[in-house]
């Protein structure tokens, strides 16, 4: 049954104490953070994106997650803060010339050095393997080491020249304190965006209402044009604008009375009327009207016109 043959058991073999806390291997943790996608747990392949909390993802995995948000996925909690593709930024990474990858292990007899990083800082040359702090800019997506940003202080990106602020700097795979600071910035940014949308909506409604009201009321251009037309008519009337030809044909007596009258003022209903004989038109044109001298005939030459209607018989 055990403990025979003169063996003496010790206390730790008989009494079970509390379990020791398992410590995570730091090297393995760094490899998982910097070489594998946080969402799909696959090796990082370009295009690589990063969220507002500084976690690395494959772009294909993020698109699949947004299309299928099923609750069964346990890893979906790591990307619950990603609402759309606008929540992530595509990274511009610089390749490490010393990293061979799968090219040096064609036969499968070579050990892969996971501590060798695929990407480096383009300014200082540090490897992006987790030993050094790295960050990216939200505006352009360029990746630098934190040492490069501290040593070369500038408000312009070192590679593309885009301007940035301190709020645009996001630490990649930072500590818990870094993640809390980034989460606060993310919440403030989203609240600001919501408030801007709310303020834009009433402004757009007011603009539409103003446009609808201006269609019903006469615009300033119409009023000004009407005043200009009225103002332009007055000097013409003072000079004595020529009467319309059709009016002189139909009402020659009215045209003659306008000139024979002693008053030189305006007619109550419209502009002044004058005889065609006083106009500057040619004699051929004047002969068309009854007021012309050629149209005047004696009583003997003039004929008697009788209107024939059926009511006369």
Topology record:
Layout: H1 11-14, H2 26-35, E1 48-51, E2 56-58, H3 59-67, E3 88-90, E4 94-95, E5 119-120, E6 134-137, E7 143-145, H4 146-151, E8 169-171, H5 176-216, H6 220-239, H7 245-250, H8 252-260, H9 283-286
Largest sheet: 3 strands, antiparallel
Beta-strand content estimate? 5-15%
Structural class: mainly alpha
Low-confidence runs (pLDDT<50, min 5 residues)? 219-241, 246-267
What oligomeric arrangement do these chains adopt? single chain
Spell the H/E element sequence: HHEEHEEEEEHEHHHHH
Shape: elongated
Mean pLDDT: 74
**How many whole angstroms does the radius of gyration measure?**
48 Å
- For the biggest β-sheet, the strand order reads 2-1-3
Strand count: 8
The rounded distance between the terminal residues' Cα atoms is: 155 Å
Q: Tell me roughly what share of residues is in helical segments.
A: 25-40%
Number of helices: 9
């Amino acid at each position: 049954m055990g403990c025979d043959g003169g063996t003496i058991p010790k206390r730790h073999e008989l009494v079970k104490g509390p379990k020791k806390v398992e410590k995570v291997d730091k090297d393995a943790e760094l490899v998982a953070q910097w070489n594998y996608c946080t969402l799909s747990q696959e090796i990082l392949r370009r295009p690589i994106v990063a969220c507002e909390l500084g976690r690395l993802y494959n772009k294909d995995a993020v698109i699949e997650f947004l299309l299928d948000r099923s609750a069964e996925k346990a890893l979906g909690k790591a990307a619950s803060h990603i609402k759309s593709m606008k929540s992530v930024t595509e990274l511009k990474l610089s390749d490490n010339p010393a990293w061979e990858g799968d090219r040096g292990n064609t036969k499968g007899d070579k050990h892969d050095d996971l501590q060798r990083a695929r990407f480096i800082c383009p300014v200082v040359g540090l490897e992006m393997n987790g030993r050094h702090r790295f960050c990216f800019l939200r505006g352009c997506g360029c990746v630098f080491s934190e040492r490069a940003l501290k040593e070369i202080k500038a408000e312009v990106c070192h590679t593309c020249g885009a301007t940035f602020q301190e709020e645009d700097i996001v630490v990649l795979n930072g500590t818990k304190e870094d993640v809390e600071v980034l989460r606060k910035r993310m919440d403030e940014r989203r609240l600001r965006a919501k408030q801007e949308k709310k303020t834009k909506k009433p402004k757009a409604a007011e603009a539409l209402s103003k446009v609808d009201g201006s269609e019903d009321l006469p615009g300033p251009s119409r009023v000004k044009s009407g005043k200009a037309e009225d103002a332009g008519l007055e000097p013409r009337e003072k000079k004595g604008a020529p009467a319309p030809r059709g009016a002189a044909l139909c009402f020659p007596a009215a045209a003659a009375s306008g000139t024979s009258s002693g008053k030189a003022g305006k007619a109550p209903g419209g502009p002044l009327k004058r005889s065609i004989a006083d106009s500057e038109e040619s004699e051929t044109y004047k002969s068309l009207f009854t007021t012309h001298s050629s149209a005047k005939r004696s009583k003997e030459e003039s004929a008697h016109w009788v209107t024939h209607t059926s009511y006369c018989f």
